[in-house]
Design goal:
about 300 residues; alpha/beta; Arc Repressor Mutant, subunit A; D-Maltodextrin-Binding Protein, domain 2; five-stranded mixed sheet; 14 strands; about 40% helix; about 20% strand
């Protein structure tokens, strides 16, 4: 007779408890109570006739048998997750392409152009996964992505889209209201905003760096507004609350349509190893949907002012 095995819910509880070695943290992750986690672990132990954890008043530890089952549960959940992702892609057919990208790129660049793709490829339906998280093409229900990074992603093709040049921008209303902006030092009289971002020893250009490039060596950045995302920085400029450092490609439409102005021409390039990339699995490089989207996107990128 086949041995009765724990279900996926039980395996998730075991995996979380074993990874954290703490029922409270596992419960927080799973949306359960610590008592519920403890009860499910006890049910697994009773079902299998195996002690998985040794418990004291303060700690829990995996037994040797528990470690074996933890490794197997991790592998099984990962395998099942990948299978579910593939099943979703098969079930939705070949007419739909799911694109993952961050909110900044979506709102400031892609959404302004996406109708062009739909007219060019009416048989391909686009859906979007808007997230700053990097998706796993094997685990997540996505086909192609646009991400900011180095472009070095194992198993993925990566097409560089455009370099990032960071420029000062503000609303026309702020410029009219003054104080006037005739030279970089005039910025001292305004609220300045930028994002704080650093990866692999590279820092996103901030106001201290811009002022240094402009020849201003006594700038005090203690009064600048620091945001976590580029979208928030740009919104502060659009609202007339600050002069912001923004990625030129992401505000090109706002500039051309008069919602923002560029008070100074000086721009600072982000380190060349970082850029926006179009990424997709190598084994899907010849998928007609991906080929069509890639060709259209690269053509649109070539039209983007730099």
């Amino acid at each position: 007779m086949a041995r009765l095995l724990p279900g996926t819910r039980a395996l998730r509880t075991l995996e979380a408890a074993a990874r954290h070695l703490n029922f409270t943290r596992a419960a927080d992750e799973l949306g359960l109570t610590p008592a519920a986690v403890s009860h499910q672990i006890k049910e697994i132990e009773d079902q299998l006739g195996i002690v998985l954890f040794t418990r004291t008043s303060r700690t829990i530890r995996l037994t040797e048998a528990g470690a074996v089952l933890f490794e197997a549960a991790t592998d099984a959940l990962d395998l099942l997750g990948r299978a579910v992702s593939r099943a979703h892609k098969v079930a939705r057919g070949t007419a739909l392409l799911k694109v993952t990208l961050d909110a900044q790129f979506a709102t400031k660049w892609l959404m302004r152009r996406v109708d062009g793709f739909r007219k060019h490829q009416p048989d391909i339906e686009l859906r979007f996964d808007i997230s700053y998280e990097v998706r796993d093409f094997d685990l997540d229900d996505v086909d192609i992505g646009i991400r900011f990074g180095t472009g070095k992603y194992p198993g993925l093709c990566a097409d560089r889209l455009f370099d990032n040049v960071i420029i000062p921008v503000c609303s026309p209303a702020l410029l009219r209201a003054g104080p006037p902006l005739k030279e970089p030092r005039d910025l001292f009289h305004h609220t300045l905003a930028h994002i704080e971002w650093a990866r692999q020893g590279v820092t996103w250009p901030n106001w201290r760096m811009w002022m240094a490039a402009a020849g201003v060596d006594d700038f005090d950045d203690s009064r600048t507004m620091v945001f976590g995302t580029s979208s928030d920085v740009v919104q502060a400029a659009l609202d007339g609350n600050a002069v912001a450092l923004a990625d030129f490609a992401m505000v090109a439409n706002d500039l051309s349509e008069g919602r923002l102005v560029r008070p100074f021409e000086l721009g600072i390039k982000v380190a060349p190893e970082f850029a926006y990339f179009l990424v997709y699995p190598k084994n899907a490089a010849h998928d007609p949907r991906i080929v069509a989207f890639r060709e259209w996107l690269l053509d649109e990128v070539a039209k983007t002012p730099t």
